[in-house]
């Protein structure tokens, strides 16, 4: 049953497992688990790592940022209400609309869905927490600190002002000399850390941390949506992070990635941005669609029809969304055939979306639907989102796009998609799951008028905006002349905006009323059939007193009966083992229990690490590079301080997990959650590196053809460095083999430490011999590629050193080899990236010789 | 419940993975071809080198995607419960991806390749 | 109020040239189709909520197959084919042209250089002949702008380091409005320009006059 037995590398299990902890009465079990899982009171709250606590914090923080973004929207509507309004000038207005977009995208939508996922996911899957609670907390702090930097800049009047997609050269140091652009590049990248940590956590939690028996075909549909969304984030965010790094390097160090006079290209930024930016729209929509797919079955009183078809549809949306980014760039002068690829893919994405909508309608048809507040909001979602989808197909058509692009038509479209596809479902979800958070049932009195105010106000604002756009009004204008004839439509849009705001105010009042006066209920007020309603409400920190065995699809359960049994401790882990925080990991496909995952206790380390990371960001912002380096060292040291509480100094062998079964603790298993987290981290890292290589090829092939100065790459040094990286990876893998075979890995680890350092020593003269990297983009790309490889080699050496430290501290044995296997993964990736990167550099310098010889260059300067 | 290799899950994404690979390949070779002026090199009867290479890539993409769908077609009897889910879903995804490949790239047959 | 979008100096729905007219026609067809699809979704919602029996036994498969796949698929293929045909005329027609008017975007004004007439340059006003295709060669001197004459149709970005091209035609002599569509900083909102389409027989005189002004 356990993974160890099927793992050929692992030695035979310890024959005598320790006995199971004693059974407790439900009350004593609750007290014991609460003591083990609780967050300390007072200032101790800052040490929280619990998913219920952090999920709520994410949601509340995201809502605060939504209020800020909404207030900015109102200021925008005041300014545009009439022609030639003298409310604010262009310099302030440009900050308003840039911040409105950035706040709503990065500080509201993504964190709001993360909050919902963190709060709900473990409860839907039948786990006690997410896979990496401290990472959840670190992500939260990165998000809040990054958001605070952006908002502080707005208050100080130096907020980003180049539009939320930050097109360069407008955002370059030439045209935006202040720190406005730096605030965006650094602040948003800081917030993206939390998006990446959430993506890794969600992926691993869905794949590994499920209730036993919940095979992959039995997962609640929301888990599929979140799993696919998290994968999209792993591959969608790195291009943006890379773009931000490159633009910040150009601004701070004059490396000319986007400067057409020195071989760069402003279009590279657009590609990198939209390579992230379009998947982003679906990253926001899909979790909301997942919530819809949970709510509709409850109110239709019928399971979701076409479960498999919906899974295929969601996957199709996820992939297609990576092939339509250029529809934001139809007017940049790309060949019609290339436009056609993106146009067709953009139109195609409507089909899997339609499949989902008709699966929801089919569920209603097959069931006995009943009306309640969440359904009202879902009706609003359907109306608004369908319109947004239809205008999306219109915009996907190249000729129409040529007219509508960059006008208020696009503003209307994107609000229909995002408000329809995210805000309305999230409002429904709030009414649906708020009783779970508070233990108080939903009341209708204010929810209905709030809906109609928001719905009517929204449509008044944005439906008319389609017409304003077709009447020729470009987006992002701070004022317009009366003679343009846009006054009437704009005034009505502004009136609608204020109706919407009133609706949201009523919604907030309603939530306060429900928190205060809602009627208490026992369990499962909506008669839902999924697992999150089997927890007590409001949920205790440990979520489930015992973990259930799932024998059917997870949307056909009876949470009432399951909840009662679990509260009595009937199930897996229905006991308290020395106050440890335990949950189960299962085999990905079959859901067979595999490992006991021991989770970390509350700690201030995530807060401290977040503060240190914030110090790095602030130091970079104010160009204090020495301080930034110190902060980086502090961040690294703090991360290392997370590790002593991981793992164990003695072999424990399989532990009883209840129901007569046993499983080893995760650090004795072959593929524990952290192993998968490393794999997914490296996948995201590889995407970042791939984006860099794409950028290099892009600049060489289609960028402005500016003659490049020669790049000298001594072959002996490159080959030596590549060989050292590969040998280092081999040494790291050999160290694992030695350890598992019961012999000392020390010598191999030492080699794995020294060899990457040797690679660094060989690459440093290459980077030094490059000459001035600010002369030409090809040199800058070479410089950054080499820097990337050096950084990875240094971290590889660090992993080897960490392995030696863990060995000395007694954390390693033949059964406890996890630390070395994580390091071996990193080493392996660094070697692969090294080979790819060095081959790329050779190819790039060849291209630099070949391409200029081709006559009739397209797209070059006159 | 036999423990299977985690890579079995990758089959779910195989169809659309091929679509994405085809996308990158076709978009990339289109750009390279325009840069190198392949659209000015006429092979025969108005067929340019640029269009020829794109159509060839398109054919390979459709064949690969269709071949994958055939390889994943349902077999009876399904040997285990989870298999009874993964394989049909992977098959449907591969069929959808084949259709997407045809629709997305069929334009290589007719539209102007460069500018 | 809907009429407000159809009139006005910058309205894409008051076409004055073939490109804009085709796109406006495409828009009206798509708008009508979208209205029908939207209503159909809500009729379907009403049926599944109130009278699912109308759909026969086990309606969910048919709903997904027809509503989710077949109908949207067919509509999409038709629409894509039409858009490709139109796109060929719009995008692919804009190739290298000796006589192209050079459009220069800079913060925050547009200049136009007329290669036919020795040294003729105008700023803020574009002069074109009516009734014939005019080729434009668009460049930028600083940040990204977008050259757009809504009533003639189509926009094209002005990108530093790149040359972009577009072909437009004004059916009749007259004055048309032009705007900068891509956000370009402080005075982005003020980057309007004026397009004067002259009768073809007078166009040479206009350019000659411009050349004299430029020369002074």
TrEMBL record, chain B:
Which keywords fit this entry according to its UniProt record?
A: Membrane, Transmembrane, Transmembrane helix
Q: Membrane-spanning regions, if any?
A: 55-72, 93-112
Q: What is the name attached to this protein's record?
A: Uncharacterized protein
| Species in which this protein is naturally found | Prosthecomicrobium pneumaticum
Automatic annotation (TrEMBL), chain C:
Which reaction is recorded as catalysed by this protein?
A: 4 Fe(II)-[cytochrome c] + O2 + 8 H(+)(in) = 4 Fe(III)-[cytochrome c] + 2 H2O + 4 H(+)(out)
| Pfam families in alphabetical order | COX2
Q: Which compartment or compartments is the protein found in?
A: Membrane
The record's InterPro entries line, in alphabetical order, gives:
CcO_II, CcO_II-like_C, Copper_CuA, Cupredoxin, Cyt_c_oxidase_su2
The UniProt entry's GO biological process terms, in alphabetical order, are: ATP synthesis coupled electron transport
Q: Which Gene3D superfamilies match?
A: Cupredoxins - blue copper proteins
| Protein topology in the membrane | Multi-pass membrane protein
Q: Which residues form the Cytochrome oxidase subunit II copper A binding domain?
A: 96-209
A single GO CC term for this protein reads: membrane
Q: Which GO terms describe its molecular function?
A: copper ion binding; cytochrome-c oxidase activity; oxidoreductase activity
Q: What is its main location?
A: membrane
Q: Where are the transmembrane segments?
A: 26-51, 63-86
Q: Which UniProt keywords apply?
A: Copper, Electron transport, Membrane, Metal-binding, Respiratory chain, Transmembrane, Transmembrane helix, Transport
Q: Which PANTHER family match?
A: CYTOCHROME C OXIDASE SUBUNIT 2, CYTOCHROME C OXIDASE, SUBUNIT II
Q: Which NCBIfam families match?
A: CoxB (TIGR02866)
The family assignment reads: Belongs to the cytochrome c oxidase subunit 2 family.
Q: What is this protein for, i.e. what is its function?
A: Subunits I and II form the functional core of the enzyme complex. Electrons originating in cytochrome c are transferred via heme a and Cu(A) to the binuclear center formed by heme a3 and Cu(B).
Name of the protein in its database record:
Cytochrome aa3 subunit 2
């Amino acid at each position: 049953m356990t993974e160890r037995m099927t793992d050929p590398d692992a030695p035979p299990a310890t024959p005598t497992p320790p006995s199971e902890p004693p059974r407790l009465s439900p009350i004593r079990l609750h007290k014991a688990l609460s003591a083990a899982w609780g967050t300390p009171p007072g200032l101790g709250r800052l040490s929280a790592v619990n998913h219920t606590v952090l999920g709520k914090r994410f949601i509340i923080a995201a809502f605060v940022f939504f209020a800020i973004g909404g207030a900015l929207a109102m200021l925008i509507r005041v300014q545009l209400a009439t022609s030639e309004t003298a409310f604010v000038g262009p310099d302030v207005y440009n900050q308003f609309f840039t911040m409105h977009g950035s706040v709503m995208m990065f500080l509201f939508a993504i964190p709001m869905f993360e909050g919902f996922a963190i709060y709900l996911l473990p409860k839907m899957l039948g786990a006690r927490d997410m896979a990496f609670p401290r990472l959840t907390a670190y992500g939260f702090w990165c998000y809040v600190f990054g958001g605070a930097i952006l908002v502080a800049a707005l208050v100080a009047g130096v907020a980003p002002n180049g539009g939320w997609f930050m097109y360069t050269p407008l955002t370059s140091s030439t045209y935006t000399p202040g720190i406005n652009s730096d605030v965006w590049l650094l602040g948003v990248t800081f917030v993206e850390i939390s998006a990446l940590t959430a993506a890794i956590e969600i992926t691993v939690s869905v794949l590994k941390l499920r209730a036993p028996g919940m095979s992959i075909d039995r997962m609640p549909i929301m888990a599929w949506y979140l799993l696919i969304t998290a994968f999209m984030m792993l591959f969608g965010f790195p291009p943006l992070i890379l773009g931000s790094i490159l633009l910040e390097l150009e601004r701070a160090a004059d490396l000319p990635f986007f400067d057409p006079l020195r071989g760069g290209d402003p279009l590279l930024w657009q590609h990198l941005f939209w390579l992230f930016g379009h998947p982003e729209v679906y990253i926001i929509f899909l979790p909301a669609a997942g919530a819809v797919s949970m709510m509709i079955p409850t109110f239709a009183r019928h399971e979701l029809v076409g479960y498999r078809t919906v899974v295929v549809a969601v996957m199709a949306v996820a992939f297609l969304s990576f092939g339509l980014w250029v529809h934001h760039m139809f007017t940049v002068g790309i060949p019609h055939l290339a436009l056609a690829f993106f146009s067709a893919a953009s139109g195609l994405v409507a089909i899997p979306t339609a499949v989902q909508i008709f699966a929801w309608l089919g569920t209603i048809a097959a069931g006995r639907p009943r009306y309640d507040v969440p359904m009202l909001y879902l009706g609003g979602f359907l109306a608004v989102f369908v319109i947004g989808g239809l205008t999306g197909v219109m915009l996907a058509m190249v000729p129409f796009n040529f007219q509508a692009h960059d006008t208020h038509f696009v503003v209307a479209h994107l609000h229909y998609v995002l408000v329809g596809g995210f805000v309305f479902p999230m409002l429904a979800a709030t009414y649906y799951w708020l009783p779970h958070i508070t233990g108080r049932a939903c009341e209708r009195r204010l929810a209905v008028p709030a809906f109609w105010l928001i719905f009517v106000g929204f449509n008044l604002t944005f439906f008319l905006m389609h017409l304003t756009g077709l009447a020729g009004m470009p987006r992002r204008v701070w004022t317009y002349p009366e003679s343009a004839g846009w006054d009437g439509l704009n005034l009505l849009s502004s009136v609608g905006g204020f109706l919407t705001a009133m609706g949201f105010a009523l919604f907030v009042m309603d939530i306060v009323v429900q928190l205060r006066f809602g009627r208490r209920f026992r369990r499962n007020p909506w008669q839902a059939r999924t697992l999150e309603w089997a927890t007590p409400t409001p949920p205790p920190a440990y979520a489930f007193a015992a973990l259930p065995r799932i024998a059917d699809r997870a949307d056909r359960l009876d949470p009432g009966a399951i909840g009662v049994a679990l509260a009595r401790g009937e199930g897996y882990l229905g006991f308290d083992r020395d106050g440890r925080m335990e949950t189960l990991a299962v085999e990905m496909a079959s859901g067979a229990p595999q490992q006991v995952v021991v989770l970390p206790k509350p700690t201030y380390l995530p807060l401290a690490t977040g503060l240190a990371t914030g110090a790095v960001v602030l130091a970079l912002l104010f160009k204090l590079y020495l301080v930034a380096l110190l902060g980086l060292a502090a961040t690294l040291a703090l991360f290392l301080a997370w590790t002593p509480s991981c793992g164990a100094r003695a072999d424990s062998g399989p532990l009883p997990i209840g129901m007569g079964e046993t499983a080893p603790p995760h650090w004795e298993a072959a593929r524990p959650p952290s192993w998968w987290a490393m794999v997914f981290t490296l996948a995201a890292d590889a995407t970042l590196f791939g984006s860099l290589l794409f950028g290099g090829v892009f600049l060489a092939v289609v960028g402005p053809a500016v003659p490049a100065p020669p790049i000298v790459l001594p072959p002996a040094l490159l080959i030596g460095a590549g060989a050292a990286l590969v040998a280092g990876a081999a040494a790291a893998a050999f160290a694992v083999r030695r350890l598992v075979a019961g012999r000392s890995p020390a010598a191999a680890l030492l080699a794995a430490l020294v060899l990457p350092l040797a690679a660094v020593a060989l690459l440093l003269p290459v980077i030094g011999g490059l000459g001035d990297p600010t002369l030409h983009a090809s040199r800058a790309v070479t410089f950054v590629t080499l820097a990337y490889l050096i950084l990875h080699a240094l971290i590889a050496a660090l992993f080897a050193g960490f392995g030696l430290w863990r060995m000395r501290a007694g954390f390693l044995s033949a059964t406890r080899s996890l630390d070395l296997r994580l390091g071996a993964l990193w080493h392996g990736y660094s070697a692969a990236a090294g080979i790819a990167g060095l081959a790329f550099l050779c190819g790039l310098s060849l291209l630099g010789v070949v391409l200029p010889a081709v006559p009739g260059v397209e797209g070059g300067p006159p | 419940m036999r423990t299977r290799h985690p890579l079995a899950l990758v089959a779910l994404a195989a169809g659309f993975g091929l679509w994405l690979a085809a996308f990158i390949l076709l978009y990339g070779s289109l750009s390279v071809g325009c840069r190198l002026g392949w659209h000015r090199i006429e092979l025969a009867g108005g067929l340019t080198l640029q269009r020829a290479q794109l159509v060839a890539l398109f054919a390979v993409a459709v064949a690969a995607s269709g071949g994958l769908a055939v390889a994943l077609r349902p077999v009876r009897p399904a040997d285990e419960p989870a298999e009874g889910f993964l394989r049909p879903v992977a098959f449907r995804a591969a069929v959808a991806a084949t259709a997407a490949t045809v629709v997305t790239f069929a334009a290589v047959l007719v539209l102007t390749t460069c500018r | 109020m809907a009429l407000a979008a159809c009139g006005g100096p910058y309205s894409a729905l008051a076409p004055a040239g073939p490109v804009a007219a085709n796109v406006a026609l495409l828009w009206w067809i798509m708008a009508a189709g979208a209205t029908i699809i939207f209503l159909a979704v809500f009729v379907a919602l009403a049926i599944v909520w109130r009278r699912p029996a109308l759909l026969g036994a086990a309606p969910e498969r048919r709903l997904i197959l027809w509503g989710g796949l077949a109908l949207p698929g067919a509509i999409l293929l038709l629409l894509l084919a039409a858009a490709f045909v139109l796109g060929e005329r719009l995008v692919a027609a804009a190739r290298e042209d000796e006589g192209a008017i050079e459009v220069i975007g800079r913060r925050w004004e547009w200049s136009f250089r007329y290669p036919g007439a020795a040294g003729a340059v105008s700023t803020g006003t574009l002069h074109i002949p009516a009734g014939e295709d005019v080729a434009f060669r668009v460049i930028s001197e600083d940040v990204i702008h977008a050259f757009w004459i809504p009533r003639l149709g189509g926009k094209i970005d002005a990108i530093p380091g790149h040359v972009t091209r577009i072909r437009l035609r004004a059916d009749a002599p007259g004055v048309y409005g032009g705007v900068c569509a891509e956000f370009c900083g402080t005075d982005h909102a003020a980057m309007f320009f004026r397009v004067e389409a002259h009768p073809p027989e007078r166009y040479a005189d206009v350019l000659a006059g411009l050349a004299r002004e430029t020369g002074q």
